[in-house]
Structure to design on (213 residues):
């Protein structure tokens, strides 16, 4: 995809979330939801390859909304990612990461340094300007080179959840091989958004015949 070869793609920052973040429509329609949402990292949660675009050491800037690397390049999440993570927490949906990056330590460091502004959906008493480290939203992290089916086998072992209760968001169609396990994968084209989450949840419901309350 051409966007991956453009140096400017990596500079897309997270913008501050308002104090009230809208939930995805599927999170409030009363129909079944997956028990776990799993996200790829590169070009799914952020618009860059962490193992090729980012050069350590890293430093958080803008109160953690962005991270700068050795060369001063800025990196952050796609715009809706913070709100999606907050919405999952609000609905008590487990969150996992499944990434085959060749720089797993750098990927984890990025999640530790980036912060998500807290919103009133998770806590009505949230103070203005407060935030949470992104890594704290993740219940399970599987970040290492290899097949995504291996990532999911480890996620299943760690969580005890059936594969059918997992919904996976990834930008590469080759990773549909996880569906041989029973996982539903939703292919995202330009990063995770609220709309992509809704589309993924509807696909999960249809695949698992869970379209009724």
């Amino acid at each position: 995809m051409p966007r991956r070869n453009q140096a400017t793609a990596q500079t897309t920052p997270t913008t501050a979330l308002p104090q009230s973040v809208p939930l995805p429509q599927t999170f409030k329609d009363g129909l079944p939801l997956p028990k776990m949402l799993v996200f790829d990292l590169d070009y799914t949660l952020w618009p860059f390859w962490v193992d090729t675009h980012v050069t350590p050491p890293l430093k958080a800037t803008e109160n953690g909304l962005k991270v700068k690397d050795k060369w001063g390049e800025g990196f952050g999440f796609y715009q809706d990612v913070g709100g999606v993570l907050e919405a999952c927490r609000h609905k008590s949906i487990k969150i996992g990461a499944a990434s085959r990056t060749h720089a797993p330590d750098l990927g984890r460091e990025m999640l530790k340094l980036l912060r998500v502004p807290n919103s009133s959906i998770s806590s009505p008493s949230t103070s203005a300007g407060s935030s949470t480290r992104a890594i704290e939203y993740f219940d399970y992290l599987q970040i290492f080179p290899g097949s995504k089916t291996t990532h999911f086998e480890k996620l299943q072992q760690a969580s005890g959840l059936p594969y059918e209760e997992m919904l996976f968001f990834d930008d590469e169609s080759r990773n549909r091989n996880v569906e041989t396990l029973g996982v539903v994968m939703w292919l995202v084209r330009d990063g995770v958004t609220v709309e992509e989450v809704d589309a993924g949840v509807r696909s999960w419901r249809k695949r698992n015949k869970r379209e009724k309350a």
Summary: DSSP finds five helices and ten strands in the chain. The chain has one domain: 22-46+80-207.
